[in-house]
Design brief:
Length: 503
C-alpha cells in the first residue's frame, strides 16, 4: 500500500514520487519512518539511517547523505542528544536546549525533509512526534575558492565562485554588507531538486523585474537542472537569437556591482557560473578591471575592444570582398603582393577563408578539450604548423593566414566568452555574403544584424540601450568610462527604483 501511494510503477518509484510526498506527513514512530526511508532509498549505499536512544528519553533517528555532511559535527550533535537530560523531550525543547547547531529547520512533510537532506542537511526524527528537524551540518569535499579561470584580471579581487551555493552567496554577502541584499531561494528540477538563489538589492531594483524573474523561474518544469545554462535558456527573452541575453560570470565582484546597479543575479548550486540580467550589447565590452583602473585606462581598453570586435566579425569578409570584387581599394604595392601570393592558389578567396577558419576553430576546440598541460601547446603549435604547411603546399595564401590569425586574436579580447561565440557564429554568414555580393553583402549582413539586435530585449530592456532608445546620461559608462565622481546615477535604461548612486 505504501509503495502504491508513492506512485510505484513496475516495481519502482516513478519520477513524480517527490512531488507526491509533499502531502505526506512525518510518521509518529521511528520504526515507521525508518521503514519508509529504507523503501525510498533502496540500493542507495550513500544514504545513511542511524537509530539511537536519547538518554532517559525516546528513540530517535537521523538520516543523511554520506559525503555531503561534516562528520565531526554530526558526531557532536548525536553526542549532545545522547546525554540530554531534559524533562520534556519535545522537538522545541531539544532544538533550544540540546542541539549545538546554528541552523535547525522544523518540517512536517517528507518532501521538505528529503529536499533538505539530499542537499546536505541532517534529518532528525524523534519518537512520538510528527515533526522532523533539518540540521544545517552541510560540508563534504568541495573545490576551494580560487581565481576565476575565464575572467582573469591584472588588478582586482582574485576570488571566484565555486560549485557550492552557500559559499557563493557568502562571497557576494561579504562585499555588500547590507540588509537590503536579498537572497531568495528556489528549488528547481523534479529529480535534481537544485537549489537556486535569486539575489537583488531591495529598494534599488525595479520590483517588476523581480516579479518577472520569479515568474519565469517558477514556470521551469524539468527533471533536472545541472548547470546555470539550463536556466539561462528557459528564462531568456528570445531563444533563437545568437546573441546572449543574460550575462554569465565567475566573479563575485561582478555580481555585487550588477545588483548595486539594479540588476538581478541568479546563483545555482553545482556551478561556479552566476547569471546576471538584464544584459545588453554594450556590456560585451565591459570588464571588471575597467572600474579598478583609472578612467582613462578603462576608456582606452574599451575603444580597443570595439576595434577588435569589428575585426573579429568582419576581417575575413572584408578580405574576401575586396580581393574578389574591389581590388581598386587596395594600394598598388599591396595588391601586387597579394596577387603574387595567390597566383598558385587553386581556390577562390572564400574557400581559402573557410578552410583556415574551420581549421582555426578546430584547433581552438582541441586546445580546450585536451588536458591543460598539452592543450595550449597543441593549439599554438598546431596553428603554426598547419598555417605554414598550408602556405607551402599552395592551399592558402600567406595573406589569408595573417587575416585569420588577426581575427582569432581579436576575438580573444572580448571579456564575455558567450559574446565571442556569437561573433564566431556570425562571421561565417558574412563571409558567404561577401563572396556573393562583395561589400554590398557585408552592408546587408550588418544591417540585418543591427535590425535583429534592435528587436530583441533582455527582460524588457532593449538590447542596444542606451543607444536605442537614446539616453544621454547613460553614455557615461558605455564605450567611454567617466570618472566615478561623474557617475552619480545608476543606469536609467534598466529602470531602477533608486536612481541615485552617490549624493
Amino acid at each position: 500500500m505504501r509503495m502504491r501511494s508513492l506512485g510505484k510503477k513496475e516495481g519502482r518509484l516513478d519520477h513524480k514520487a517527490i512531488g507526491q510526498l509533499k502531502h505526506m506527513r512525518i510518521e509518529n514512530t521511528v520504526k515507521a519512518n525508518r521503514a519508509l526511508l529504507e523503501e525510498l532509498f533502496t540500493d542507495s549505499s550513500d544514504f545513511v539511517i542511524r537509530e539511537f536512544q536519547i538518554e532517559k528519553g525516546p528513540k530517535a533517528l537521523i538520516c543523511l547523505v554520506d559525503g555531503l555532511v561534516t562528520s565531526a559535527l554530526v558526531d557532536d550533535a548525536m553526542q549532545a542528544l545522547m546525554v540530554f537530560e531534559g524533562g520534556a523531550f519535545t522537538i522545541d525543547t531539544i532544538c533550544e536546549q540540546a542541539l549545538p547547531v546554528g541552523q535547525a529547520l522544523q518540517v512536517q512533510h517528507y518532501s521538505e525533509l528529503l529536499v533538505n537532506v539530499l542537499a546536505g542537511d541532517v534529518g532528525l526524527i524523534i519518537e512520538g512526534g510528527r515533526t522532523a528537524v533539518c540540521l544545517g551540518l552541510r560540508g563534504g569535499e568541495r573545490r576551494t575558492v580560487a581565481e576565476p579561470e575565464t575572467e582573469t584580471v591584472v588588478r582586482g579581487p582574485r576570488e571566484g565562485f565555486t560549485e557550492k551555493l552557500r559559499t557563493n552567496t557568502a562571497l557576494v554577502r561579504s562585499r555588500i554588507k547590507s540588509p537590503r541584499l536579498k537572497m531568495k531561494s528556489f528549488v528547481i528540477g523534479t529529480e535534481s531538486n537544485t537549489n537556486v538563489v535569486l539575489s537583488y538589492m531591495a529598494g534599488i531594483v525595479n520590483p517588476k523585474l523581480v516579479e518577472e524573474v520569479e515568474r519565469r523561474l517558477n514556470d521551469i518544469k524539468i527533471d533536472a537542472v545541472l548547470e546555470s545554462g539550463y536556466i539561462e535558456e528557459f528564462i531568456q527573452d528570445q531563444v533563437t537569437s545568437p546573441f546572449p541575453q543574460i550575462q554569465t560570470t565567475e566573479r563575485p565582484d561582478a555580481v555585487a556591482a550588477a545588483v548595486l546597479e539594479g540588476r538581478i543575479a541568479i546563483l545555482v548550486d553545482g556551478t561556479p557560473f552566476a547569471l546576471i540580467a538584464p544584459f545588453t550589447f554594450w556590456q560585451w565590452l565591459h570588464a571588471s578591471e575597467d572600474y579598478y583602473e583609472r578612467f582613462m585606462v578603462g576608456t582606452l581598453t574599451r575603444m580597443l575592444r570595439v576595434c577588435c570586435l569589428f575585426i573579429a566579425l568582419m576581417a575575413p569578409a572584408l578580405y574576401i570582398a575586396v580581393s574578389t570584387y574591389h581590388p581598386e581599394m587596395i594600394p598598388t604595392n599591396l595588391l601586387i603582393s597579394i596577387a603574387a601570393s595567390r597566383e598558385a592558389i587553386p581556390f577562390p578567396a572564400v574557400v581559402e577563408a573557410l578552410i583556415m577558419e574551420i581549421a582555426f576553430e578546430a584547433l581552438r576546440e582541441a586546445g580546450i578539450r585536451l588536458p591543460r598541460t598539452v592543450g595550449q601547446a597543441v593549439s599554438i603549435l598546431g596553428a603554426l604548423v598547419v598555417g605554414q604547411a598550408a602556405v607551402q603546399a599552395g592551399i592558402v595564401s600567406a595573406a589569408m593566414v595573417i587575416v585569420v590569425s588577426m581575427t582569432g586574436i581579436a576575438s580573444f579580447t572580448l571579456p564575455r566568452y558567450n559574446a565571442a561565440i556569437a561573433i564566431r557564429l556570425l562571421r561565417f554568414p558574412l563571409m558567404l555574403l561577401a563572396s556573393v555580393f562583395g561589400l554590398l553583402g557585408i552592408i546587408l549582413g550588418t544591417v540585418a544584424i543591427i535590425s535583429h539586435m534592435s528587436k530583441i530585449t533582455s527582460f524588457g530592456v532593449p538590447y542596444i540601450a542606451p543607444a536605442s532608445p537614446f539616453s544621454a546620461g547613460d553614455w557615461k559608462d558605455v564605450v567611454f568610462r567617466a570618472p566615478w565622481s561623474k557617475m552619480k546615477s545608476r543606469p536609467q535604461f534598466i529602470h531602477p527604483e533608486d536612481t541615485i548612486r552617490q549624493e
